[in-house]
Amino acid sequence: MTKWVYSFGPNGSDGREDMRQLLGGKGANLAEMASLHLPVPPGFTITTEVCAYQIKHGAYPDDLMQQVREALKSVENEVGHSFGDPENPLLVSVRSGAPVSMPGMMDTVLNLGLNDETVAGLARKSEDERFAFDSYRRFIQMFGDVVLGVEHHRFEDALEQYKDGKGYILDTELTADDWRELIEEYKAIVKADTGNPFPQDVHEQLWDSVGAVFGSWMNQRAKTYRRLHNIPEEWGTAVNVQAMVFGNMGEDCATGVAFTRDPSTGDNDFYGEFLPNAQGEDVVAGIRTPQPLTEHSREKNESDLPSMEQTMPEVYLQLCDVRAKLESHYLDMQDIEFTVQRGTLYMLQTRNGKRTAKAALKIAVDMVHDGLIGQEQAVQRVTPGSLDQLLHPTLDPDAEKDVISRGLPASPGAASGTIVFTADEAEQRAEQGEKVILCRAETSPEDIHGMHAAEGILTTRGGMTSHAAVVARGMGRPCVAGAGEIRIDTKSGTMRARDIELKAGDTITIDGGSGEIMRGRVPTVEPELSGDFATLMGWADKIRQLAVRTNAETPNDARTAVKFGAEGIGLCRTEHMFFESDRIVAVREMILADSAEGRRKPLERILPMQRDDFAQLFRIMRGLPVTIRLLDPPLHEFLPHEDSEMAEMAEATGLTVDEVRARANRLRETNPMLGHRGCRLGVTYPEIYEMQVRAIFEAACQVAEEAGETVEPEIMIPLVAIDRELKQLRELTDRVAAEVMEKHGRTVNYLVGTMIELPRACMTANHIAQHADFFSFGTNDLTQTAYGISRDDSASFLPSYEHQGIIERDPFITMDPDGVGALVQLAAERGRQTRPDIKLGICGEHGGDPDSIRQCQEVGLNYVSCSPFRVPIARLAAAQAALKAG
Ligand code: ADP
Ligand code: MG
Ligand code: MG
């Protein structure tokens, strides 16, 4: 018999923390907390397998009903009241919980088990009518919304109208009788909207809610979130049914959320927010401004609301105790949810807290220094991709800034953009290439696409744990939250901070690290790799086996990469050196010439410029290896297009404009990416490669002479498909190199190799390796040629492939392991057969992608090469890959 239901509570738990796949993160951690003797209200978890079963069969497993009945019975025994008992009813929450947390993505129903009869029992037992009827109306609203699909705002509107009629401002002003009246209205709304009365049978309520939570796994919000975070649909969600505790029974009650350390900075400060006399999601919804947990954070944020430390000192101490227990057990920063019922603390959730990259680094490094975890664990704690946040510019401290207001520093980084007020508009404008800042009173899961499209997010309500703050931190978007001074008027498309009015389309800058909001665009400065970041990188370097190089051709890129720890250049493209305005005429002269002699003359003018380029790079790289790829792009790309360019060429060559046009037309290609390019240029126009090789070796000799620096160039021949292509071009290279070295009386150690970027090259790698000291996998072109998909045209259909689930990931972002990865593996094996010590690297975009780096580790490449700003990401990903490989 399959166990579909797992109980948890003070009497012990069936589940454990490491059963998240089966119980979901929430269920597994509720079980674990109960086992640690933390105060967890009893309940049970219906497994993710039931969700999968239900999707597959359209029905629940036969024995589920029985197992749920038994689990419910033991909850009843534990708390001493019965579900549906009109005298003393047990109420439960029905909560979703997937294997990985999807904040706010799925639905929860609270206070389930209330009906016209049990509400009276609850009122008598609690001796608080107001509380009982308030709970009932909340239940009707949540159940109506989540289970029956009645729009949330219908209830909100009814409430607002009622309050207006009575002249009330706050919900707390409503009496028991007021709620009673509203409940009748709520029930009428349900009846009108669904055609059925609000269900009074508590078991029907329970099963319908369970069904709705399972169903929410497939709602649009959840689907979008899964797509953005690469969460497989098959996983399913679990459902947790848990005895209710009440934070809304009076002023000695509260509900709150907290992080065991500051999720923004990583400081070892208890960080949280709570609302007295409130229930459930009131805190995250941003309806009332929550109060700080500690005096420390009250002072820091200059809040005038009293802290829990001050108003509920005993509960606060209990909570501090829980904090210490959780950290020493989980050995990681936790994000917790709790409720206080009449002075007693209950724990409702814990999970590893989401944090900014800065906080992740600080927490990992601090925990190593405190002896809680080791360096290897620390290295695994930081998501490589998140480092991107720290590699982005921050505000120039010397820049002038016109600060118009401030809010909470909810997610660090600085961003400038134009103001938009809706998620849809953010998306539309971003698609046009505009940088936007999404400004909202608060955000909700419906805004995700707009938050994703925006450079930064600004909200005027809600705290550090509001939806906007949590989601922005997860996405690495700068966010300033709860800027209470600002009033947004969506209708008129304006936003007002005291006496300053801004319109949609005006430019602002937000600093999510300080909370400042500024008018206009404020200049930024480049990031530094120092402090905790440098410490963790040092640990990663000790662990990793893959070397990390960079793709760079300009001195600026090379310098940045070296600063970020690059151990050489893995790809220096030489074509950009041909495109600069002072060179392009010579280049065009060369390709339009109709003889080798005619080509030599302009090449001689280019030679000294190329030599200087290389010399500059060699100086910056100070003896580190530099892989230079000889000219690769189609000749087609260099042709003159405009009439003015034709005229310019006519003047330079002494030909007529018509002759120039005729020659250019001869060189035009239908399919240039598969045309006259790569080593084919070297085979047909050997003078070009000769000039480049000469420039490289003259530069190497020159730098060696002036600086005593050893330079080890690695000459890379692109787009080889046939071993004889490489044989011929290697001979050319060796010959020119020998000439230059002889002339300078110096030996330069160098390698000659090829870029492997065609399937035929992979298949014949054993032959190609006879002439290659190294292979560098050019996986952009290899992906293009393996799939037969043009990289430049894929945008019109690949997204649709992803949506339809035909492919899981864009193969140009993460290397496709089954096709392209297999080709790389095969080429590596065949290359090593011929030349066991052949040097292997990767220089496609994939060299900076953590999942692809893992594949490179598995194949046993020597290095990855990526763009300068991804070098730290690659260093960390390489260390994690080495640890994973064991
Ligand atoms: P989410 O996954 O969106 O955080 P939860 O299932 O955690 O949703 O529920 C949201 C909130 O509802 C919780 O933080 C808690 O405040 C409240 N809640 C859930 N279950 C209970 C319960 N058994 N008793 C009291 N409050 C509850
Ligand atoms: Mg929760
Ligand atoms: Mg290529």
UniProtKB/TrEMBL annotation:
<dbReference type="GO" id="GO:0016301">
    <property type="term" value="F:kinase activity"/>
</dbReference>
<dbReference type="InterPro" id="IPR015813">
    <property type="entry name" value="Pyrv/PenolPyrv_kinase-like_dom"/>
</dbReference>
<dbReference type="InterPro" id="IPR010121">
    <property type="entry name" value="Pyruvate_phosphate_dikinase"/>
</dbReference>
<feature type="active site" description="Tele-phosphohistidine intermediate">
    <location>
        <position position="467"/>
    </location>
</feature>
<feature type="domain" description="Pyruvate phosphate dikinase AMP/ATP-binding">
    <location>
        <begin position="55"/>
        <end position="299"/>
    </location>
</feature>
<keyword id="KW-0808">Transferase</keyword>
<feature type="binding site">
    <location>
        <position position="757"/>
    </location>
    <ligand>
        <name>Mg(2+)</name>
    </ligand>
</feature>
<feature type="binding site">
    <location>
        <position position="779"/>
    </location>
    <ligand>
        <name>substrate</name>
    </ligand>
</feature>
<dbReference type="InterPro" id="IPR040442">
    <property type="entry name" value="Pyrv_kinase-like_dom_sf"/>
</dbReference>
<keyword id="KW-0547">Nucleotide-binding</keyword>
<protein>
    <recommendedName>
        <fullName>Pyruvate, phosphate dikinase</fullName>
        <ecNumber>2.7.9.1</ecNumber>
    </recommendedName>
</protein>
<keyword id="KW-0479">Metal-binding</keyword>
<feature type="binding site">
    <location>
        <position position="781"/>
    </location>
    <ligand>
        <name>Mg(2+)</name>
    </ligand>
</feature>
<dbReference type="GO" id="GO:0050242">
    <property type="term" value="F:pyruvate, phosphate dikinase activity"/>
</dbReference>
<feature type="binding site">
    <location>
        <position position="573"/>
    </location>
    <ligand>
        <name>substrate</name>
    </ligand>
</feature>
<feature type="binding site">
    <location>
        <position position="780"/>
    </location>
    <ligand>
        <name>substrate</name>
    </ligand>
</feature>
<keyword id="KW-0418">Kinase</keyword>
<comment type="function">
    <text>Catalyzes the reversible phosphorylation of pyruvate and phosphate.</text>
</comment>
<keyword id="KW-0067">ATP-binding</keyword>
<feature type="active site" description="Proton donor">
    <location>
        <position position="843"/>
    </location>
</feature>
<feature type="domain" description="PEP-utilising enzyme C-terminal">
    <location>
        <begin position="530"/>
        <end position="881"/>
    </location>
</feature>
<feature type="binding site">
    <location>
        <position position="629"/>
    </location>
    <ligand>
        <name>substrate</name>
    </ligand>
</feature>
<dbReference type="InterPro" id="IPR036637">
    <property type="entry name" value="Phosphohistidine_dom_sf"/>
</dbReference>
<dbReference type="InterPro" id="IPR023151">
    <property type="entry name" value="PEP_util_CS"/>
</dbReference>
<dbReference type="InterPro" id="IPR008279">
    <property type="entry name" value="PEP-util_enz_mobile_dom"/>
</dbReference>
<comment type="similarity">
    <text>Belongs to the PEP-utilizing enzyme family.</text>
</comment>
<feature type="domain" description="Pyruvate phosphate dikinase AMP/ATP-binding">
    <location>
        <begin position="314"/>
        <end position="367"/>
    </location>
</feature>
<feature type="binding site">
    <location>
        <position position="781"/>
    </location>
    <ligand>
        <name>substrate</name>
    </ligand>
</feature>
<dbReference type="GO" id="GO:0046872">
    <property type="term" value="F:metal ion binding"/>
</dbReference>
<keyword id="KW-0670">Pyruvate</keyword>
<dbReference type="InterPro" id="IPR018274">
    <property type="entry name" value="PEP_util_AS"/>
</dbReference>
<feature type="binding site">
    <location>
        <position position="778"/>
    </location>
    <ligand>
        <name>substrate</name>
    </ligand>
</feature>
<feature type="domain" description="PEP-utilising enzyme mobile">
    <location>
        <begin position="434"/>
        <end position="515"/>
    </location>
</feature>
<dbReference type="InterPro" id="IPR002192">
    <property type="entry name" value="PPDK_AMP/ATP-bd"/>
</dbReference>
<dbReference type="GO" id="GO:0005524">
    <property type="term" value="F:ATP binding"/>
</dbReference>
<dbReference type="Pfam" id="PF02896">
    <property type="entry name" value="PEP-utilizers_C"/>
</dbReference>
<dbReference type="Pfam" id="PF00391">
    <property type="entry name" value="PEP-utilizers"/>
</dbReference>
<feature type="binding site">
    <location>
        <position position="757"/>
    </location>
    <ligand>
        <name>substrate</name>
    </ligand>
</feature>
<dbReference type="InterPro" id="IPR013815">
    <property type="entry name" value="ATP_grasp_subdomain_1"/>
</dbReference>
<dbReference type="InterPro" id="IPR000121">
    <property type="entry name" value="PEP_util_C"/>
</dbReference>
<keyword id="KW-0460">Magnesium</keyword>
<dbReference type="Pfam" id="PF01326">
    <property type="entry name" value="PPDK_N"/>
</dbReference>
